[in-house]
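Can't paste images in this forum, so I'm doing it all in text. The chain is below; anyone willing to post the predicted C-alpha cells underneath?
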Amino acid sequence: MGEFGVTEPFRRELLAHCYRMLASVHEAEDAVQETYLRAWRSWGDFEGRSSVRVWLYRIATNVCLTALEQRRRRALPSGIAAPSTDLAAPPPAEPDGTAWIEPIAESLVAADPASIVTLRESLRLALIAALQYLPPKQRAVLILREVLGFPAAEVAAMLDTSVAAVKSTLQRARARLDETAPSQDEVLEPTDPVARALLDDYVTGFENADTAALERALRADAAIEMVGTTAWFDGRVMCLRVLAAAVGSPGDWRMLPIVANGQPAVGAYFKGEPYGVAVLTPTRTGLTHIHVFSDPDLVTRFGLPAQSDGHGGSY
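Text version of the structure:
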C-alpha cells in the first residue's frame, strides 16, 4: 500500500460523514469501502492539489450522492404517520419502499476524545432524521459546511460547482432544516448526572417491572417511536400505557447501557435473548423521546454479548 496508508486515519470520520448522509450504518460502511477502493485505484493520479482529507471527502460525498439517487429517504415513524392512540390497533401500513433510520454505535466513529462532544451533537437521531428531509445536494453542502467546517471554495471543488451555488444551496438547506429539526440545545450529554439518573430510572423500570420509575423518567410531552414499524406514541400517559404493557415481570428484561448517536442508550435482552436497542433523549426535565429499534442483531453490532444472564452495568 505504501504511501496510501496515510488515508487510514480518516476512516472513522468518513464513516460518520457517510452515516449523516445515508442514515444507515450498513450503507455508510459500504460507502466508505467504495471510497477507499476508488481512492486506491486513483492514488497514482492524486497530485496533492488538495489535502488527502479533502480528496477523500470529495470521493465519499459523491459515492453517497450516487447511492441516494437509487432510494427513498430513510425516516423515523413520526416522519411517516400520525401518533397511535390505540395499543391494540395495528400500526398504519408502511408506504412502499419505506426504509428506516439506523442507530450508530459511538465506538464506530469516535477516535479523538477532544472532539467527542461536537461529534455527538452531529449524530443525534433528531438531526439525522431532519437531514434526510433535505435533497441530497443540499444535505451534502450543509454537512460539509456546517458540521465539518470546510470552506465554501473547497466544497465547491468537491461537488464540481461554484462558490455562489454552494452559498445559495446552504441558505436553502438551513431554511429547510429550521423547519424540520427540533431544538437540540437542551439535550444532555450521556455523562451528565441528570442523564445518568434518567437512564437508571429507565433500566430500573424494565428490570424490576417498576412503572413508577418509568413515570419519573418521562417528560409530559414524551414520545416513544417503534422504529421498524409506523407505530409511535405521544404524551406521558400514552407512553406509560405502552411501557406498562411491555415490562412484564421482574427479571424478564436486562438492559446494558451504551452510547448510540451521542445519546444514552441500552442494549435490551428479554429473558436472556437479544431484543434490540433503545436510544433515549434526556433533558433537564425528563426524557423527551425513546426510540426503540427491535432488531436483535443490533445488540452484537454494538459490541454486546449475544445473550445476557446477568444484570445491566454502567458506562
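The chain is about 45% helix and 15% strand. Strands lie at 74-75, 99-100, 218-227, 232-234, 253-260, 263-270, 273-283, 286-293.
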